[in-house]
Amino acid sequence: MLSAVTVSKQTIEFRDSPQPTLQPGYALVRVHNVTLCGTDLHIWEDDYPTELPLIQGHEFSGIVEALGDTEDHGIRIGERVAVNPIIYCGQCRPCLTGRYNVCQNVGCLGCYSDGALSELISVPVDKLCRVPDELPLDIAAMGEPASIAMQAVNRGRPQAGETALVLGSGPIGLLATLYLTELEVRVVCADTEQHRLDLALEFGATETLLVTPGTEFPDAYQAPRLDALTDHCGPELVIEATGVPSSLENAIRLVASAGRIVQVGISPRQAAVSMKDIPYKELDIMGSRMSLNLIPDGLALLARHPEQAHALMTHRFAFADLQQAYQLMQGRTEKIGKILIQMPAGSAA
């Protein structure tokens, strides 16, 4: 079978790899679609804590081609599936308390072990998530990022009638906005790109705020608008989805007293965090990583909002053009949402 191997910094080789061996409790999935995210770009740039060479791809969908035993898992050969890529030990303290998404030995297909940029992949049957009939298989590849957004929102304990500020209107921020809107939370979105904010309105945002890098946020015009939306108290919930240090600093400054902040954007950089605001406001600051088996919920969210789901996927590349897809992500010369890689099986479907 053909696999795309990231062998070194910004270098991909297409190799003939042996087909995976079918084992009890596992399924062979014919990969049809893979979507790319910022983590994929960092791995390709060799700027991520994993070792190369590696077959990338952790957001994907396909069709079950074979099952390793006859036990009834509720999944049948020929079914359309998305896959939960998280690997966990089940023995450490986080796992034993139900927080396996932050397992002390956590892994992820396509990030720390070989993933889905290959024609076939072997995965445990319990990692398979059936795709709703009404959801196209290409859109189903975004079930994993949808689950990340839902995990972040759930961590924030939103209540109907509250106001949430979502910092960053990339795919995770937009999907968080969509989910918050379903929960009857009023959402204000902030981003540095106007085209992303335009899309945020389609995802349910009530108000958008354009951030000019290097200037005070919110500015003299934006601050009264945000005050009016929050009864001059600040938003009860802030979802930080950029990973930019100044954005977390803004979140702490702007959130209401007794408010909650969820940090889902990831960065190795350091933030200058106020040691006064956190105790004075008695804030809850929470991290959010991957999800607790929310891919089925993410697929359902996408199925309920087909127009938004299709709008999120802005570019499509053939498998053979994978290198160009990464170069597009790196160059940031176009308005990019999610990039889809159509595998040979997906292109032929």
Task: Please describe the topology of this protein.
Elements: E1 2-8, E2 11-16, E3 26-36, H1 38-44, E4 59-67, E5 80-83, E6 86-87, H2 93-96, E7 107-108, E8 120-124, E9 128-130, H3 137-140, H4 143-155, E10 163-167, H5 171-182, E11 186-191, H6 194-202, E12 207-210, H7 222-229, E13 237-240, H8 245-254, E14 260-263, H9 277-281, E15 284-287, H10 295-304, H11 306-312, E16 313-318, H12 322-331, E17 338-342, H13 344-348
Parallel strand pairs: 10-11, 10-13, 11-12, 13-14, 14-15, 16-17
Antiparallel strand pairs: 1-2, 3-4, 3-8, 3-17, 4-5, 5-9, 6-7
Helix pairs in contact: 4-5, 4-10
How would you portray this structure in words?
- Residues 171-302 form the Alcohol dehydrogenase-like C-terminal domain.
- The protein is an alpha/beta fold.
- The protein folds into two domains: 2-130 and 305-348, Alpha-Beta Complex (Quinone Oxidoreductase, Chain A, domain 1), CATH 3.90.180; 149-287, 3-Layer(aba) Sandwich (Rossmann fold).
- It is 30% helix and 25% strand.
- It contains 13 helices and 17 strands.
- The strands form four sheets. Strands 3, 4, 5, 8, 9, 16 and 17 form a seven-stranded mixed sheet that branches. It has a six-stranded parallel sheet with strand order 12-11-10-13-14-15, sandwiched between helices.
- It is globular and about 60 Å long.
- The mean pLDDT is 95.
